[in-house]
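Worked example 4.2. Below are the chains of a multi-component assembly; read each line carefully before continuing.
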Amino acid sequence: MPVRKMTPFVLPVPVTADQPSLQDNTADLDRLRHALGLKLLAVDTAGGALGVRPLEIPFARIVPLCRRFRQAGFSGVALVNDLPDRWVLADFLPQSPGRLPAMALDLGTTHLEATLVDLLTGQVLFSAGRENSQIEYGADILSRIHQATSVRRQMREVVDLSFLDPGLAVLQQSIVACINALIVELASGSGVAAEDIRALSVSGNTTMTHLLLGLDPFHICREPYIPMVNVIEPMESRELGLILHEAAPVWIMPSAGSYFGGDLISGILASGLAATEQTRMLIDVGTNAEVVLGNRDWLIACAGAAGPALEGGVARMGMRAAPGAIDFVSLDPETYALEVRTIGGAPARGLCGSGLIDLVASLYLARIIDIRGKFRDPDQESDPARAAFMRERLVERDGQRAFVVVTAEAGDGDEVLLEQIDLDAMIRSKAAMYAVLATLVGQVGLAFEDLAEICVAGAFGNHINPQRAITLGMLPDLDLSVYRAIGNSSLQGAEQVLFSRSARQECLDIVSKITYVELNVNQDFMIRFSGARFIPHTDPTLFPSVPLFAEQEEGAAESLKTKG
Amino acid sequence: MPVRKMTPFVLPVPVTADQPSLQDNTADLDRLRHALGLKLLAVDTAGGALGVRPLEIPFARIVPLCRRFRQAGFSGVALVNDLPDRWVLADFLPQSPGRLPAMALDLGTTHLEATLVDLLTGQVLFSAGRENSQIEYGADILSRIHQATSVRRQMREVVDLSFLDPGLAVLQQSIVACINALIVELASGSGVAAEDIRALSVSGNTTMTHLLLGLDPFHICREPYIPMVNVIEPMESRELGLILHEAAPVWIMPSAGSYFGGDLISGILASGLAATEQTRMLIDVGTNAEVVLGNRDWLIACAGAAGPALEGGVARMGMRAAPGAIDFVSLDPETYALEVRTIGGAPARGLCGSGLIDLVASLYLARIIDIRGKFRDPDQESDPARAAFMRERLVERDGQRAFVVVTAEAGDGDEVLLEQIDLDAMIRSKAAMYAVLATLVGQVGLAFEDLAEICVAGAFGNHINPQRAITLGMLPDLDLSVYRAIGNSSLQGAEQVLFSRSARQECLDIVSKITYVELNVNQDFMIRFSGARFIPHTDPTLFPSVPLFAEQEEGAAESLKTKG
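Applying the procedure described above to all two chains together yields the following structure tokens:
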């Protein structure tokens, strides 16, 4: 990733104007505009590339600006919003502020993560997160779009609602209140006033962005899947009802389509994918598995429904990576000693994605499940130690086998189970993931071995053990050094645009450069998906590092025959 | 005046975008921005001088724009506000409108005049005027500033009012309501909806501009007389609470100082003063006499308190040029037949400026008043016919002589009188006017004979007879063809900026080019003022066309001695 010069979203500019006199009766605002304009001209001229940008002074800012300028004795520090095609004068301070707080927000469908940063130093002042309050109106994107267009749907699409759909208004108010609560938390946590937060950047998927901005999401989920807006100019915080400084500019990460949102553009930015000569891959597992492949010359992307099982959205005992989630499992294939670790050491409440992958990979290596991801029958087991372990841990629930990960006694009254239905979903997800990666790489005529790096984003990326994911055949069987966990890249991208004009420009460049591959209609993907529904794969030569077991090879061959 | 190309303040731009499809899933707004951007690029490239301007889409416009664009089938006409440094997308129509109404407003201290024009054809659709409703809060600028800063004055200047001064809020609301009433009148008069009016331009003096925009006028009348704003970027109509289309851009004529307002910049624009090689003069008589001298290379201006008597602000029987105002008087110096004409033929209610000038010049030529502007004594009169006329018309009121212009019988019960006190004010005003003109011309080393044209603006310019003004020594004794009455140039300038980008640019150029001469501290002016307090002047050789009377020459000489 290139090191970027600090060119913050809000630039403090020292300004000292001449004092008014009978000989110089320039008006207050004209005096400020003139003195500031000369400074900004110098910035633009030094910067080169963008050319000289006009200075805009919003009408609503004129009275407070003139008052503060005059009270400061016509000398102080102007705060100027640095927008792609113009400067916007936001405020005037009597002296340089000690710090200039700005907020970066990852606006997830289920969860919001935010950091408060200091634009002067780059320092992180505070971090906080909270559940997306819109969950009350629908857990997923589709049900929220349904909710946001309720009146419109009743009135049929042809009716031009001249008002905001009440459903949309409710969702918008809900998320604005949720963000405002987060602002309060950041402000009190770092000892600043909310109105002293001078900028905001938001990474969210296309639907979440529409719901925040009060834009109609009706066509997002209807063919040909057209968002109302992909690229939007920064607006002022007050236009969204946020409790930041009212002239704080809000940078909304642009999206590239209905199913390729600003969160992923943020990820591309943060991973530096579009900035290097080498071809690399970014995998972001959220509700979907979103994958981007490319370099500084080209970018190709797709999304597949690989995510839910991995993020805890499908397995009955699945959950987000949060306290009480099992994020690490090991099972000794000789002694059958089972070790389980939870986030924060709290009593186990369920399995997060990495815990699930660890568990299933361990069950495979210990031969508790077969190549198809089915629990084996303890009665058919010849190894007595394994048979004993299986009898101890495998139980019958609703007529299906299930594995007891944590017993009720150990788990503070709650047992944690892995049921066959969860295992099946997990296998489908891992198959979809591998098929997505293989299809995308194949699409540009490359092999996995050609990739310089595979960045794995999100909580998923932070917690999974790539070796275990390879064992399952979820990730390609490459040297482990190829994999890099990059954390919450949606939030990181949002932070980067706060500090760097070239990062803001790069977001727009990424949008215009990206090619999106639709997998739902892709024949190649469907074939690869079928082949990947075994552990590690129907073609084990693709996974030379994964142990093979003779009886399972037979089972696989048999299964393939019966499936025909 | 140069003929300008039609480059209206709001430009209709036909746009036909590609239809969305699975192959082209560009978002609605991005689709519109792209298609429109190409058209605007062509406009800017053809225009040359200004360079390529960015296209701004205000956040509040996005939802209605996208809805209308989609409903029109992605093809129609975009309405784009043409601002000096950027384009602003205001609306989208399914097809080309039949007309594109815009409003020009002369925002006078006492009176508002407006026209509704069609930006497509240049045609005037309707005109209307009404009294400035702020008169209720103060007849003149100073008392309105007093009213607008009432809370601030109580709290002392040092207090930073974080709120709008309630006094200012009241004045602002009053004038906004007054303009809205005018909008209703224009709209119903021309059969358009108020929200179909797409632009507004406003010419007003600096204080009126501040009161309309809610800007603090406190320092305008306090040394060193600094306005809050001289040059202001166009704002949207909704930001002022006007009932035009909410995204209609409002052009506020820039001012050059506290006492050199946008109304006069408008006058310079309309007269073409700053556009020709020849040096010309503009005289605008309102509450002040404002005078500008210059050509396309330089402009020099001053204002003097010459106005009130001429506009009806001082004489007890003085009034605006309105129905019932005497605007024309003739008195035969042989037969003493007195002829009086009123505006609209209504019963006489008073004298407007031109009527006053006619009357005083006639009284001088008929030798009813002397060179000092004093009523002569009928008992000292040797000519019997004149003595008889004087006895008939001269009456005593409050111990002072007065001339009966219209008798009570003729005047429908009300007599119209010219009192000595009015005459004295008139003489002071005409002396001030001449002194202003002479001082300004002298300041740049020119003589009156060097002027190619003298434009006389306003109702005053329309009604006065330059020959009569010369007789009084108010205007220089030049060939009458030099004088040109140009009407309400404040309103005309406002109309011009609606139609022409170069006119809008010229306003800004005029402001940066103008030099203002302060007369209150000018010794040259004071000397010239004293010399001009006689009819026509203490130096009659300056007025060769005006008849001189022997006894009056003696009187003048005597008066000079006694005053000397």
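Take a moment to check your reading of the output against the notes. The first helix of chain A runs from residue 28 to 47. The first strand of chain A starts at residue 10 and ends at 16.
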